[in-house]
Amino acid sequence: MLSSLDRELLETVADLHEIPMGAYNIRKNGEKEGRNTTGNIDIVTKTDKDGIDIIIKPGTVGESVHIPVIMSSSGLKDTVYNTFEVGAGSDVLIVAGCGIHNPGEESSEHNGVHEFFVRKGAKMKYVEKHYGEGEGQGKKVMNPKTIIEVEEDGVVELEMIQIKGVDDTLRETEVRLHKNAKAIIVERLLTYKDQFADSRIVIELEGEGSSAQVISRSVAQDDSVQKFYFNLVGKNQCMGHVECDSIIMHHAKVYSTPEISALHQDANLIHEAAIGKIASDQLIKLMSLGMTEREAEDRILAGFLH
Amino acid sequence: MLSSLDRELLETVADLHEIPMGAYNIRKNGEKEGRNTTGNIDIVTKTDKDGIDIIIKPGTVGESVHIPVIMSSSGLKDTVYNTFEVGAGSDVLIVAGCGIHNPGEESSEHNGVHEFFVRKGAKMKYVEKHYGEGEGQGKKVMNPKTIIEVEEDGVVELEMIQIKGVDDTLRETEVRLHKNAKAIIVERLLTYKDQFADSRIVIELEGEGSSAQVISRSVAQDDSVQKFYFNLVGKNQCMGHVECDSIIMHHAKVYSTPEISALHQDANLIHEAAIGKIASDQLIKLMSLGMTEREAEDRILAGFLH
Q1: Contact call for residues B53 and B85 (beta carbons, < 8 A)
Q2: How far is the C-alpha of B126 from the C-alpha of B145, rounded, in Å?
Q3: Where do the SUF system FeS cluster assembly SufBD core domain residues begin and end (chains A, B) (predicted)?
């Protein structure tokens, strides 16, 4: 049974106001809470380890899969392995958030290993939102690992967002692109207090005509620390572009290490990174409209992380 | 005695058509070949290890020091430690190239460790050019290590150029900037055949108001490999900008890893990197003016590395 707290977590991490249409699998405190499959999308519990196989038939267009994870106990450590087979020529939305409500003093940790096989010509939009909350001092820890293989002419669009309340995270993303395959990755990350976030994105542009775009935006507040490592590896005629911007505030620290590796004469790779504080002219403009400094800051940060 | 070959090397690496005016120290095959000091600039042989101390009096303006190193034997391994004291308020040019003519089959290697103390309000322009040539298969190896401490209001401008003919190089540059100190670093690097170049530049922006700009341009041809690692570490209110562009050709490989580390809320750090091939529209334009493809390529590369 989903409590009202569970429903709030689901709404935050998976935009679910009610039980979703289409295929879904809701995991709560390490157990299956609910599941639905459709004619085109099957969900099968793994037998060798904890997790599910999501199998999307070739040619499945306009359908979605929601696989949110929610945790509401303190001191729980949950690890799950999910495998996605996105059939050739399909066009689907996959939503996979994680929300932790930790009421106590012990750490609650979710480790999600997601492996995707995006077959020939398939399109996948993948949305992952992370959110933590709770009355106690128990940490909310989330370590997502995302491995994506995109076959010829496939397109993946990833939206990976750490909304708030995650104390510790190691976010690992690996994408391999074959001929004419394309990846667009948008990352949004907020840390504050003494939170720590480490994000690593490696994209291998293996196929001729493959392309990748990464846009990473983060805000680091208080005493939080963020580390970014990106690597675009161009092994063929390809295009790659990484753009990462961080706003740093208070006593926060941001380390940004974006590597580009050109292993082919027709690899075209660009990287841009910037770390700085909120533009003072923006602050002044909003304050001249009657906002307090704090309100103006919040407005700018919300726009930046939108 | 300087042979005509020596004179050619000196001209290439230190723009010296004859014995320079002002202070100089010429090192040939690991030995002192000539030296001149002036009323303001003293050069003293180190007693504890191989190398010299260059002592520039406070307030020395408009003078230069040339300290070229040339090697013309095969199988020589030369390591030298030079220390530069650039007195407060002075404004000087220091030229420190290395030219190796390796006539034989054994490696010739020069390792130069240069340490600079740029005192309050001093300005230093430092030019370092590396060049190798030779009839045999013996490698030309150069490993420069450059450590620079820039005191309050000091300004350093570095021009570090690997002209050609260097088979293997590890270039390490460390700069520490104090209050309102400024560094401008321009690097130019060409590799071809199976040459390998590794360049590491770390700039610590320690003082309030310090600023750094790094512009790195490289061309990687044939089977050569280039690795770049830059790190701007902002520890105070500061500005830092790294811009690195590489042209990749043939079967060359370029790995570019520029890190920016913001450890202060008023650190403003930007990095841009791009790796790609020669723009085809530029090639076509030059070829339409009557150049062969090869001539057009050479013209574009020369402009890029200028």
Answers
A1: yes
A2: 13
A3: 83-304
Query: Which among B252, B269, B274 has the least Cβ separation from residue A275?
Result: B269
Q: Is this complex's ipTM strictly greater than 0.90?
A: no
Tokens representing A118 are 């995006």
Q: Which residue carries 């030059």 as its tokens?
A: B286
Question: A115 and A84 in contact (C-beta within 8 Å)?
Answer: yes
Give the DSSP letter of residue B68. Answer: -
Nearest residue in B to A259, CA atom: B257
**Rounded Cα gap, residues A178 and A268, in angstroms:** 16
For the stretch A43-50, contacts whose Cβ atoms lie closer than 8 Å and that sit 24 or more positions apart, written own/partner, are A46/A81, A46/A83, A49/A81, A50/A79, A50/A80, A50/A81
Residue A254's closest chain B neighbor by CA?
Answer: B262
Strand, helix or coil for residue B187: strand
Nearest to B223 by CA among B185, B190, B192, B186: B192
Residues of A in contact with B227 (CB under 8 A): none
Minimum Cα–Cα distance from A257: chain B residue: B259
So what's the pLDDT on residue B284?
87
B108: closest CA of chain A, how far (Å): 29
Asked if the Cβ–Cβ distance from A260 to B259 is below 8 Å, we say no
C-alpha distances out from residue B153 to A295, B40, B278, Å:
38, 21, 40
Q: Are B241 and B214 in contact (CB under 8 A)?
A: yes
The Cα–Cα gap between A46 and A27 comes to 14
Q: How confident is the model at residue B9 (pLDDT cuts 50, 70, 90)?
A: confident
How far apart are the C-alpha atoms of A69 and A14, rounded to whole Å? 9
Rounded to 5°, the CA angle B235-A298-A241 comes to: 60
**pLDDT tens digits, one per residue of A67-94:** 999 999 899 999 999 999 999 999 999 9
Which residues does B contribute to its contact with A (CB < 8 Å)?
234, 246, 248-277
Residue contact A249–B268, C-beta within 8 A: no
